[in-house]
């Protein structure tokens, strides 16, 4: 098993809270991780119909069977269980009782906020980071192979063909999980909606325009977007809110959590086609932002990450707003060759924000790290291991 960076945090938290909840997309490795970390704990999956019926019909009996040191997998399947868990952990009165896992942020968070607040620590587990693949000896040497394959564990652990695996993943998600969350009568329209979202990954999102392109209302587009967010398919990156005497873009940027899913939805058949695809720049940026999100989740840092763009078109792909008012700007360039023009966004940001150039980063598709006048240059492979989150 590839070591997951967040393992040490989970081991620490289980000694501080009665419950630790691990949430993330399906197939991100939650079950594998908790079984490896806690091999002596009881395990039960509430995907199992018999176990689900047991938990629903006799929650007290269920928790008597699975009491201390138990892993409850896909616990959002039985939302009524949360209030009984509250009573159970309060009566025992000590730490390290339960591990909960879940694939739907909305259902799990709703149960936690209503019944388990103060009793649970929440951990987000995304697919592998590039650093985890490098440490496990499974990282592709070629950038396009990495972007095309994505970072879901089964692609790398089991060597599953990416296109086949992602076809099954998307089909299962649409036909099963979406129907569990909400009633969608026209699945073909929803599938079109997901593909239209994929075409906008790494771009500022306009829900009204997206809805018009799919033939649905603004409110429906907003609802479906929330479903994709809750299921860890996409996330929205907010614009930086300070003015700097400029009119700023107010809409968020849309990103997919995994470039393998993204490439499949864009109809990219192989890494060679990706190399010349019109969306390659946005796909590379999506990967870079996702690596940053994984770094934030694995370190359990505040999500003080934004993008910045003004109405004149000046833009920074990523801004870290650090405590004390300092900034870390990061730009992503999908080419292997850099020019002075590559630093245009960073140069403008330094001018209006008084950020020193040594705080800036430019991540590109090349392999040579450099110190340049307008910031540190990191190749794609070293970027994952030098994520500048705590400078």
Globular, elongated, flat, extended or rod-shaped: what is the shape? globular
Strand portion: 15-25%
Number of domains: 3
Structural class: alpha/beta
- Identify the strand order in the major beta sheet: 9-10-11-12-14-13
Counted beta strands: 14
How many whole angstroms does the radius of gyration measure?
22 Å
Number of helices: 18
Kindly describe this structure.
By secondary structure, the chain is of the alpha/beta class. The chain has three domains: 7-124, 3-Layer(aba) Sandwich (Rossmann fold), CATH 3.40.50.300; 130-239 and 253-287, no CATH class; 305-386, no CATH class. It is built from 18 helices and 14 strands. The chain has helices at 7-13, 30-37, 49-57, 59-65, 81-92, 105-116, 130-135, 143-149, 153-157, 162-181, 187-198, 207-214, 218-230, 259-265, 271-275, 280-299, 344-353, 380-383, and strands spanning 19-23, 42-45, 70-73, 98-102, 120-124, 203-204, 234-237, 253-256, 305-309, 315-321, 327-333, 361-364, 370-372, 375-379. A six-stranded mixed beta sheet has the order 9-10-11-12-14-13, sandwiched between helices. Strands 2-3-4-1-5 form a five-stranded parallel beta sheet, with helices on both faces. α3 (49-57) crosses α4, α5 packs across α6 and α12 crosses α13 (218-230). The longest helix is centred in the middle third of the chain and has 20 residues, at 162-181. The protein is globular and about 65 Å long. 43% of the residues are buried. The model has no long low-confidence stretch (mean pLDDT 91).
């Amino acid at each position: 098993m590839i070591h997951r960076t967040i393992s040490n945090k989970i081991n620490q938290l289980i000694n501080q809270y009665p419950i630790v909840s691990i949430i993330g997309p399906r197939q991100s490795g939650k079950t594998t991780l908790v079984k490896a970390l806690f091999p002596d704990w009881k395990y039960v999956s509430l995907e199992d119909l018999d176990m689900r019926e047991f938990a629903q019909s006799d929650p007290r009996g269920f928790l008597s069977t699975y009491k201390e040191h138990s892993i409850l997998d896909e616990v959002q399947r039985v939302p009524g269980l949360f209030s009984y868990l509250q009573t159970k952990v309060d009566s025992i009165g000590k730490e390290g009782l339960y591990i909960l896992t879940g694939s739907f942020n909305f259902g799990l968070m709703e149960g936690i906020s209503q019944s388990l607040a103060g009793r649970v620590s929440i951990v987000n587990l995304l697919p592998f980071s590039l650093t985890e693949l490098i440490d496990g000896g499974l990282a592709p040497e070629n950038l396009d192979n990495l972007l095309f394959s994505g970072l879901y564990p089964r692609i790398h652990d089991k060597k599953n063909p990416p296109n086949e695996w992602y076809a099954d993943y998307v089909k299962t998600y649409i036909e099963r999980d979406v129907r569990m969350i909400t009633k969608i009568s026209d699945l073909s329209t929803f599938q079109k909606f997901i593909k239209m979202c994929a075409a906008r990954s790494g771009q500022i999102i306009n829900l009204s325009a997206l809805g018009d392109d799919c033939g649905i209302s603004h409110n429906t587009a907003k609802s479906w977007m929330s479903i994709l967010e809750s299921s860890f398919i996409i996330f929205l990156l907010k614009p930086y809110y300070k003015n700097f005497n400029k009119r700023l873009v107010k809409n968020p940027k849309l990103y997919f959590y995994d470039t393998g899913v993204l490439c499949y939805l864009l109809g990219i058949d192989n890494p060679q086609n990706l190399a010349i695809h019109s969306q390659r720049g946005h796909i590379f940026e999506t990967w870079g932002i996702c690596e940053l999100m994984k770094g934030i989740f694995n370190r359990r840092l505040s999500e003080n990450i934004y993008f910045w763009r003004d109405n004149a078109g000046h833009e920074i792909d990523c801004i870290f707003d650090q405590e004390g008012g300092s900034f870390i700007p990061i730009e992503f360039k999908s080419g292997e060759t850099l020019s002075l023009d590559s630093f245009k966004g960073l140069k403008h940001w330094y001018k209006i924000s008084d950020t020193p150039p040594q705080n800036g980063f430019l991540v590109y598709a090349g392999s040579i790290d450099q110190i340049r006048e307008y910031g540190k240059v990191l190749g794609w492979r070293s970027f994952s291991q030098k994520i500048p989150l705590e400078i």
